Amino acid sequence: MTEAAATVSAARRIPLARPGVGQDKARLAEMLRVDHAGEFAAVHIYRAQRAVLEGRKGKDAIAADLTEMEGHEAVHLARFETLLNENRVRPTAMIPLWKLAATALGAGTALISEKAAHACTEAVESVIEKHYADQIEEIRDRDPDLAAELTKFREEELAHHDHAIEHGSREAPAYRLLSSVIKVGCKAAIKISERI
């Protein structure tokens, strides 16, 4: 491991393996539940943003981008739905609330401005890519196939993040405040979805 990789790894909070019978299965259930919830929310954020911006004059490019990104998230969501079923893991009980919150966040940021919609994407994807990176590190040896899938999903989330920056996310009104609030919300949703 390079010095830079060791520094990044040391800075991440990777849960230690839990002792006891069945703990790997319990941890996998937490991971799948939260990843499913995150992809579900992402689909609804992009869908709501697209609903606001699609058909507006001069918004064809962002509407096309949102459609493409929503498509990526829908593929991720479908995969996690399959993994939940295969592993007999229930989704989070918070799904109805996450749908409402994601729709409000997507519509709200799109109504503020195109750049605010991009700021939302940047904030959400920055939390999600770090979350996936932690999971990949945690399960790399235990479940290399799932780690490989998560790596692919993480790369797509990073592409969304970078696209948002390239399209002016940091020029959004009250960017720092908006970004901070969204990141705090995402981190809270991760913790809640793992447990409930």
Automatic annotation (TrEMBL):
Entry keyword annotation includes Transit peptide? no
Annotated Fe cation 2 binding lies at E73, E125, E157, H160
Q: Which reaction equations make up its catalytic activity?
A: a 5-methoxy-2-methyl-3-(all-trans-polyprenyl)benzene-1,4-diol + AH2 + O2 = a 3-demethylubiquinol + A + H2O
Query: EC number(s) per UniProt?
Result: 1.14.99.60
Q: Which SUPFAM superfamilies match?
A: Ferritin-like
Broad class of where this protein is predominantly found: membrane
Q: Give the record's family classification.
A: Belongs to the COQ7 family.
The gene for this chain is coq7
Function as written in the Swiss-Prot or TrEMBL entry: Catalyzes the hydroxylation of 2-nonaprenyl-3-methyl-6-methoxy-1,4-benzoquinol during ubiquinone biosynthesis.
The entry's protein name is: 3-demethoxyubiquinol 3-hydroxylase
The membrane-topology field of this record reads: Peripheral membrane protein
